[in-house]
Amino acid sequence: MAKKAWRIIIPILIMTSLALFQNSFIGALASPFRQFNLLLSSLVFILFFLDLRFALLSAFIAGLFLDLVSFNFFGFYLAIFFLTILAAQWILKNWLTNRSFYTLLALMVLTTIFYNFLAALALYLAGTGGSLFLFRSSFWLTLGYQSLWSGAFALVMFNLAVALSKRIKPFFLESKSLYDDF
User: Fold this and answer.
1) Are 65 and 19 in contact (CB under 8 A)?
2) Number of other residues whose CB lies within 10 A of the CB of residue 20
3) Alpha helices in the chain (DSSP H)
4) How far is CA 37 from CA 47, 71, 97, in A?
5) How far apart are CA 150 and CA 86, in angstroms?
6) Phi and psi for 128 in degrees, rounded to 5?
7) Would you say 58 and 11 are in contact if contact means Cβ atoms under 8 Å apart?
8) In 10 A of CB 58, how many CB atoms?
9) In whole angstroms, what is the distance from residue 168 CA to residue 49 CA?
10) pLDDT, tens digit, for every residue of 31-90?
């Protein structure tokens, strides 16, 4: 019983801490640094290395916390995180079938693009986004910065996970020379 409770308590503590750090510290930084979306990158990392259930639980916790402290309509982050994780799972299962650094990098960038388009579309449809987001330079600048930050996060966290875990082993393809056929 206590083991099952810790399976819920630990993600709550981790995701609440990350959401608090995202909202209070990263949000207060200067422009290129404030664009780092720690929660989205962490959710994709969790999906990549753990499983969909844990990623959805983490998305629920992070989305609920951000919905409580943000000025967007309630359910904004819950819906955006859930849809983004489900899209990332679909991409991971149908397009990116191996577990390499390039797969994580592509998944991070694709989910960042999906997240930003979905969030901007939701704000536009709710009437709080102003003009159409496709014609604003701030949308494209934010998308570029978030893609770069998520790529840097993927680089650091993938190498850390490989160093600490035995699940991902590097393998090398044998080099076949052109002259081996003769």
Assistant:
1) yes
2) 13
3) 2-24, 31-34, 38-49, 52-69, 76-94, 101-126, 137-164
4) 16, 17, 25
5) 18
6) -105, 0
7) yes
8) 24
9) 9
10) 888 888 888 899 999 998 888 898 998 899 888 888 888 888 888 889 999 999 999 999
Give CA angle at 83 (30, 151), nearest 5°. Answer: 40
Spatial CA neighbour of 65 closest among 81, 48, 77: 77
- Residue pair 46/55 in contact (Cβ under 8 Å)? The answer is yes
Closest to 157 (Cα-Cα) out of 3, 16, 12, 18 = 18
> Distance between alpha carbon 177 and the CA centroid of its chain, in Å?
40
Q: Which two tokens stand for residue 53?
A: 């259930």
pLDDT digits (tens, 9 = 90+) for 136-175: 777 888 888 888 988 898 888 888 888 887 666 555 445 5
108: Cα separation from own chain's centroid: 6
Joined together, the tokens standing for residue 154 give 């993927």
DSSP 8-state class, residue 167: S
Instruction: Measure the CA–CA gap between 23 and 64, rounded to whole angstroms.
Output: 13
* CB distance 114 to 89 below 8 Å: no
Kindly tell me the burial class for residue 142, based on how many C-beta atoms sit within 10 Å of its own C-beta (0-12, 13-18, 19 or more): buried
DSSP state of 75: T
